[in-house]
Request: fold
Amino acid sequence: MAQIVAKFGGTSVSDLQRMRDIATTVKSEVEAGNQIVVVVSAMAGITNDLVALAREANPLHDAREYDSIVASGEQVSSGLLSLCLQEAGVSARSWQGWQIPINTDGVHGKARILGIDTEKIIKRLSENQVCVIAGFQGLSPENRITTLGRGGSDTTAVALAAALKADRCDIYTDVDGVYTSDPRIVTSARKLEKITYEEMLEMASLGAKVLQTRSVELAMSHKVPLQVLSSFTGMMGSVLPGTLVVAEEEIVEQEIVSGVTYSRDEAKITLLQVPDRPGVAAAIFGPLSDANVNVDMIVQNISENNNATDLTFTVARGELDKALEVLESCKSELGFLASVPDSSVAKISVVGVGMRSHAGVAKRMFAALAEHNINILVISTSEIKISVLIAEEFTELALRALHSAYGLDKT
Ligand code: ADP
Ligand code: ASP
Ligand code: MG
Reply:
């Protein structure tokens, strides 16, 4: 007997027929003696519609009400899938985050799971019932519904698998695995048989939305056996191989670069003529951090006349207005001349654990971009990734050029 947590994303539960297909495969797994926990996203497009409604009702909405609105998509899909399972003759019931409960912190809109009470789920599984769990949602310490950030059903699934110590956590989506780049943009992208937790973590946080970043963090720290599979090409027992996310030592032939990612969720701010004195960076980034604005890439020029310099950094595009407001409020205190925003930028990154032991990775990236006349605005690196900020209009061109430059194209 195996205990399996299977998560189905929005396109995998987009209509009743797809839910009936899932019910049929879940039924055969149950009949084979396995215990199944199903985590569902909202039906495709529903969360976007709910977010738009909340914004239209009040652009500066109360985040607690936002969460109770956007969490409702998963309530519907979990109920519908339970009905489809019952119709197929399988004992099933739906569970909302608050009913389990999945306890989170109180950071509405991007809450973190603090703990899951698995007692009721374990009992139902032992009675051969399928537990259909609404992804993306939890319960705050104030007893309010929270959501885990966009794409958060992945995190619900991995957190449940970790709490239950399940044998597997399978993430079913609309592509059949993790690719060397987004297959919708880079048609020559290759499916990876295996990827390390570390690389997947970087790829997710640098824009590959196939898994939510937090879900990979959890899988890595709890050693959850995780795989990404397609719900469109067969499921569970009959599934075609997807991509396994594994520990580094399980990969024998390590590529230097495993993936190329992009993120359009970027905005650049340049502060002109910032006084060049100790403490100025703390004075700028402190208030931004207090306002919950995450700063990502930073570049500071050397001051020419020794008393003022330009400072450029990036924030998430959705936080640009908030960042500018914060900076404006402390402009006179900081003493910079002006802030220049630019939201038509994109971040392109190459990721691979092989970079640790190979030189020349950055050189190849810069040469490939230069060959295509793509200007680099900001660079940042870590042990296993290099990111560059470029004009957004060159996103696709840069992705394809780098994909070829590192020999990742399928043959
Ligand atoms: P779901 O609704 O099932 O959670 P998502 O839309 O969140 O699905 O994630 C799947 C999508 O991720 C794919 O359709 C694909 O376009 C995108 N994607 C981006 N980068 C990658 C990558 N490197 N490998 C696979 N898919 C990727
Ligand atoms: N429905 C939520 C979203 O669209 C959560 C998820 O799909 O994982 O972001
Ligand atoms: Mg997703």
About this structure: The pocket of magnesium ion (ligand 3) is lined by residues 9, 151, 154, 209 (CB under 6 Å).
